[in-house]
Design a protein that fits this description.
Helix content of chain A: under 10%
Oligomer: heterodimer
Strand content of chain A: over 45%
Order of helices and strands of chain A: EEEEEEEEEEE
Number of strands of chain A: 11
Helix content of chain B: under 10%
Number of helices of chain A: 0
Shape of chain A: globular
Largest sheet of chain A: 6 strands, mixed
Number of helices of chain B: 0
Largest interface: A-B, 27 and 28 residues
Radius of gyration of chain A: 14 Å
Shape of chain B: globular
Number of strands of chain B: 11
Radius of gyration of chain B: 13 Å
Largest sheet of chain B: 7 strands, mixed
Chain lengths: 113, 115
């Protein structure tokens, strides 16, 4: 089966740094995505990792370790608008599940002033 | 607009009625996906289209659920004889191609409430 775990909730203060972890166990691996979802809105794409290491994109960075089945999303210089749910999603390798993403339940981040 | 468009944005209906949800993907995107999101749950995959064909429909929860895509563009998800457990937000996504590194771009979803 497929299993994607991430913390349910996190809080942080404006200007701080927060790390949201995601662990996964899937049938094969063909990439990991992070999405941001504000309440009542569509998930929006943040980052993609398929090789081990850190991908940096402005205030957001994402890390992947395939051997450990582990990823994190790092948010720097937090702003109030970063309060949202952050979704970790894994794309399995080919076969009958080609195309789909498996999502974790999301981490609700609240940024306090 | 340039994004994925879904309609209606909200739908309230009585148990036992049929509903149709529509998705208009980003122009030129050949891959289209349906997911649903229940309160406190992760996004649950329903079906995937490549062009007009559905290589993977294994996520459809029962035979009351069906979907089609015509002209390689608009898709319709139909739920027959709705049940209360069908209440959820139904999200549609599209991607440029079915490549592993292509992100899926989501619409705002249809919030379905079954009374």
């Amino acid at each position: 089966g497929q299993n994607i775990d991430q913390p349910t909730e996190m809080t942080a203060t404006e200007g701080a740094i927060v790390q949201i972890n995601c662990t996964y166990q899937t049938s094969g691996f063909n990439g990991l995505f992070w999405y941001q979802q504000h309440a009542g809105e569509a998930p929006t794409f943040l980052s993609y990792n398929v090789l081990d290491g850190l991908e940096e994109k402005g205030r957001f960075s994402s890390f992947l370790s395939r051997s450990k089945g582990y990823s994190y999303l790092l948010l720097k210089e937090l702003q109030m608008k970063d309060s949202a749910s952050y979704l970790c999603a894994v794309r399995p390798r080919g076969g009958s599940t080609l195309g789909r993403l498996y999502f974790g339940r999301g981490t609700q981040l609240t940024v306090w002033p | 607009g340039a994004g994925v468009s879904q309609s209606p944005s909200n739908k309230v209906t009585e148990k036992g009625k049929d509903v149709e949800l529509r998705c208009d993907p980003i122009s030129g995107h050949t891959a289209l996906y349906w997911y649903r999101q229940s309160l406190g749950q992760g996004l649950e995959f329903l079906i995937y289209f490549q062009g007009n064909s559905a290589p993977d429909k294994s996520g459809l929860p029962s035979d009351r659920f069906s979907a089609e895509r015509t002209g390689g563009s608009v898709s319709t998800l139909t739920i027959q004889r709705t049940q209360q457990e069908d209440s959820a937000v139904y999200l549609c996504a599209s991607s440029l191609a079915d490549r592993s590194n292509q992100p899926q771009h989501f619409g705002d979803g249809t919030r379905l409430s079954i009374l």
